């Protein structure tokens, strides 16, 4: 292999000249039977060249694949946690709604009782904010 590479390096100038010189005329004679195959071959070549950069980028990213997979696993775990928390919040909201429905169903009953007490001139004293024990201890000080 080394001998071959040394020979190539020695003949570098003649190789360049051969590569610059066209190997044939401006076109290659192809029988008409094979024209459709050549068209298909050229379409494939154009598609390959268009996608070549993407393929090369994919190959360049292969060493980083493990790190990317770890990041994706971490992100997936975080998403699972967020889904669990969201489900818990949804359950709490539904419980809260049920409690609000219960409270709102009692409001008309309370208002009806209050109205009936007003009709009979019964005065309901407001609930004290402090207990008598707290008031006595404050007064004693």
How do the strands and helices of this protein lay out in sequence?
Blueprint: H1 2-10, H2 12-20, H3 35-61, H4 65-119, H5 132-140
Describe the structure in your own words.
Pfam families: HAUS2. The structure is a single chain. It is elongated, with a radius of gyration of 44 Å. Residues 130-139 have low confidence and may be disordered. The chain is 77% helix and 0% strand. It is mainly alpha-helical and 141 residues long. The chain starts with a helix and ends with a helix. It is built from five helices and no strands.
Structure summary:
The protein is mostly helical and 141 residues long.
Keywords:
141 residues, HAUS2_metazoa, HAUS2, single chain, mainly alpha, HAUS augmin-like complex subunit 2 isoform X3
Number of helices: 5
Order of helices and strands: HHHHH
Q: How big is the Rg?
A: 44 Å
What characteristic shape results from the CA principal axes? elongated
Give the N-to-C terminal Cα separation. Answer: 107 Å
Helix content: over 70%
The biggest sheet amounts to:
none
Strands, count:
0
Average pLDDT confidence is 80
- Low-pLDDT regions: 130-139
Strand content: under 5%
Organism: Bos indicus (Zebu)
InterPro entries: HAUS2, HAUS2_metazoa
Protein name: HAUS augmin-like complex subunit 2 isoform X3
Pfam families: HAUS2 (PF15003)
